[in-house]
Design brief:
- 29% of the residues lie in helices and 30% in strands.
- It has three domains: 79 residues; 65 residues, Beta Barrel (OB fold (Dihydrolipoamide Acetyltransferase, E2P)); 74 residues, Helix Hairpins.
- It is α+β, with helices and mostly antiparallel strands and 244 residues long.
- The N terminus is likely disordered.
- It is built from two helices and 16 strands.
- The longest helix has 36 residues.
């Protein structure tokens, strides 16, 4: 349903203005000035569960600052721990088999040099040794996979920032792919505004802009960092901007 008094227009998706502080605003750009309503946004990190798992610990609180690599959500690792232990046990068995096969190979080589055994005996020993080597490599790969699955159950911040959301409590189960936490990165926020089609041609990355923030006096200097290539409809809060 259209808002009375507003026209729905096709616009370039979003004009991104660089390095600005935090609240909605008005912006100006180009030789002539055009007022644009928009929103302040910043880089968000969504920490998702790789598999369905229960939350066992929440080391960070909402609103707390976290550093790169700091644990935000700990998921249950019981199954992954068991898989890793099983893989390590299988690797030990494969190592023992390789040691035996290596001994038989060396013995076969010596017997062949002494012309006591046949070439076929040596080929058999070589094949068994190679099979044992391949089995050890397979078990090592399985251990690496199990270790990776185990590590992924510890959800860490990839960048320093502030914990914005914790979607689940301790004891709750996060579905596979479900976002368990959201971190707002410390990187500078930006302003997203919707640009009318008639001023697209004279606006480009690098164009100067000024930003007014509600509740603060004065204007901030900025510049356009990106213009989306796909058009969007005017957001409901953006009135037709007057040209000055």
């Amino acid at each position: 349903m259209k808002d009375p008094g507003y026209r729905t227009r096709r616009l370039p998706a979003a004009l991104i203005l660089a390095a600005l502080p935090v609240l909605p605003l008005l912006a100006g750009c180009g030789r002539n000035t055009v007022d644009l309503a928009g929103t302040v946004e910043r880089k968000t990190l969504e920490l998702a569960a790789p598999v369905s798992a229960e939350v066992t610990e929440l080391p960070a609180d909402v609103g707390s600052h976290v550093t790169t690599g700091q644990v935000v959500v700990q998921l249950d690792t019981a199954v992954a721990d068991a898989e890793l232990r099983a893989g390590e046990a299988a690797k030990q068995a494969a190592d023992a088999a390789l040691k035996e096969a290596q001994g038989l190979y060396e013995r076969a080589v010596n017997l062949r040099k002494a012309r006591v055994s046949t070439a076929q005996d040596l080929d058999t020993a070589v094949r068994r040794r190679d099979e044992a080597l391949a089995l050890v490599a397979e078990k090592e790969a399985r251990i690496a996979q199990a270790q990776k699955r185990l590590d992924e159950l510890t959800l860490r911040a990839h960048l320093p920032g502030v914990v914005d959301q914790l979607a689940f409590e301790v004891g709750e189960r996060v579905p596979a792919g479900g976002v368990a936490a959201v971190v707002l990165a410390d990187e500078a926020p930006w302003v997203r505004v919707w640009l009318p089609a008639r001023v697209v041609a004279r606006t480009r990355p690098g164009s100067a802009a000024e930003i007014e923030i509600e509740g603060l006096d004065g204007r901030l200097k900025g510049h356009v960092t990106d213009i989306a290539r796909e058009p969007e409809f005017t957001p409901h809060y953006a009135p037709p901007p007057p040209l000055r």
